[in-house]
Design a protein that fits this description.
TIM Barrel, 10-stranded mixed sheet, 21 strands, alpha/beta, Immunoglobulin-like
Length: 474
């Protein structure tokens, strides 16, 4: 098998000596991550294009058409939770610098350009907490001292490592217990109507406090997983309740506080039920006027088509995967190739169905898949062993990087169409004129194909269980 893989990789990097250029000055380079040869975001060299006016049916192809453009990319990134930040500051300074460079440096790393963080505690916190004293509906005791220890410093370091601002959006898992029908931050419950205005002002307090401490907030989701009753922090809203909270409280309160530019994202739960939620909220113009977009998660059934249904019905509304991860955590599974393939499959489908942002869950967890105060341990793309002071980069990190490193904010999705289902593909036209074409092969066999654009083609072979990005430049 190694001999055949070597031949395939040679074919991947072969340059056709007699090839005429695609256009004057256009070049193509290949970057590869694959299971069997150990390549991880490895540069595989240049491609050259030769005329191929009409491929035959027997020739596997990926057709790219940059003249047809679709949604513009907001960013690709992950979540800096309490768990991520606590693990981060338990690592040696050199490893912390390595992690930030790997995630946020657009040249030396994979160029993350989008981050989520939590309001109040979530399951990936070491314990439950809020920012106010019980019963303080006027929020006079509001204080984010808890977050100043780990989370805000890590967010500031991430911004510095990126070298430029990037969107940060925030999500609550639960209001304070005294605002809820069950008197508990955990186990579901709902927001009491009499505290709806105070809870909306709580968002304002949080945003103002973070921005005063050097962390600009771009947007917010109304509620993490509003249909889930969990053993951790959770709060249930029906679609009508979420609509009315946005329409009558959150939207007006943000505008009155001068924060009307913050992007409000509804739903923030699985693809499965997203259409009903979106229809209920966006068919009400008084609610819809405050809503920037719809967030969704990847748990339960994939239901990729529901993203497309929402995009078809509400084409002006932005779509973003706001959370996804592999789990439950098993240290024996840190190198399971399915970790990365799960990401690659979801990202290609979501982008092709209209998503303009994609946010992984925790960017870093410890060697146990936590910390997590209810034992809900899971995988992250990178795990830090806080005892040994080391980092373990799973293949999921490299799969995400095949997108985030080459598809940059502001890029517009273009057509990328494979002739076989064995090849999954998406493509974007970057603002600098470069074209990033991602091709994933989750099958057990190598897949040769022609990368075809405007009557010219270059031969490429995608090794079994691999993902590659072809970057075309003028």
């Amino acid at each position: 098998m190694k001999h055949s893989t070597t031949l395939l990789l040679s074919a991947l990097t072969a340059v056709l000596a007699c090839a005429s250029p695609l256009r004057a000055g256009v070049t193509g380079t290949v970057t590869l991550t694959d299971r069997d040869s150990g390549h991880r975001l490895s540069s595989m060299g240049a491609l050259a294009f030769a005329p191929l006016p009409q491929p035959t049916e027997k020739q596997q192809c990926v057709f790219v058409d940059p003249t047809k453009t679709f949604q513009s990319l907001v960013g690709i990134g992950g979540a800096i939770t309490d768990a991520a930040a606590e693990t981060f500051f338990k690592l040696p300074p050199a490893r912390r610098a390595e992690l930030l460079r790997a995630y946020f440096d657009p040249r030396a790393g994979i160029g993350y350009s989008l981050v989520r963080t939590n309001i109040n505690s979530c399951d990936f916190s070491s314990g439950s907490y809020t920012y106010v004293a019980d019963g303080d509906k006027d929020l006079k005791t509001f204080d984010i001292a808890h977050d100043l220890r780990y989370r805000i410093p890590m967010l500031r370091e991430a911004l510095a490592a990126a070298g430029r601002p990037f969107p940060i959006f925030v999500s609550p898992w639960s209001p304070p217990a005294w605002m809820k029908t069950n008197g508990d931050m955990l186990h579901g419950g709902s927001l009491k109507p009499e505290y709806a205005d105070a809870w909306a002002r709580y968002f304002v307090k949080f945003i103002d406090a973070y921005q005063a401490n050097g962390v600009p907030i771009w947007g917010l989701t109304v509620q993490n997983e509003p249909m889930a009753v969990q053993i951790w922090e959770s709060c249930v809203y029906t679609a009508a309740q979420e609509r009315d909270f946005v329409k009558n409280h959150l939207g007006p309160v943000l505008h009155a506080a001068g924060l009307g530019d913050k992007k409000i994202i509804v739903w923030d739960h699985n693809r499965t039920q997203m259409y009903q939620r979106v229809e209920t909220i966006l068919d009400d113009p008084d609610a819809a006027k405050y809503v920037w977009g719809v967030g969704f998660h990847w748990y339960v059934d994939p239901c990729y088509g529901n993203v497309e249904r929402v995009h078809e019905a509400f084409p002006a509304t932005h779509l973003m995967l706001t959370e996804g991860c592999n789990g439950p955590f098993d240290p024996k599974g840190l190198d399971d190739w399915k970790l990365g393939e799960t990401y690659g499959t979801a990202m290609i489908h979501d982008f092709n169905n209209g998503a303009d942002g994609w946010t992984d869950w925790n960017i870093l967890l410890d060697q146990h898949g936590g910390p997590n105060h209810v034992g809900n341990f899971c995988f992250a793309p990178v795990h830090g062993d806080t005892s040994a002071g080391t980092l373990h980069f799973t293949n999921a990190f490299y799969y995400i990087g095949q997108f985030s490193k080459f598809i940059r904010p502001g890029a517009r999705r273009i057509v990328s169409s494979a002739t076989v289902d064995r090849l999954l593909t998406t493509a974007f036209l970057n603002t600098d004129g470069s074209i990033a074409v991602v091709v994933m092969n989750p099958s057990d066999q190598p897949q040769p194909f022609n990368l075809w654009i405007h009557g010219e083609a270059a031969p490429v072979t995608s090794p079994e269980h691999s993902i590659l990005t072809v970057l075309l430049r003028e």
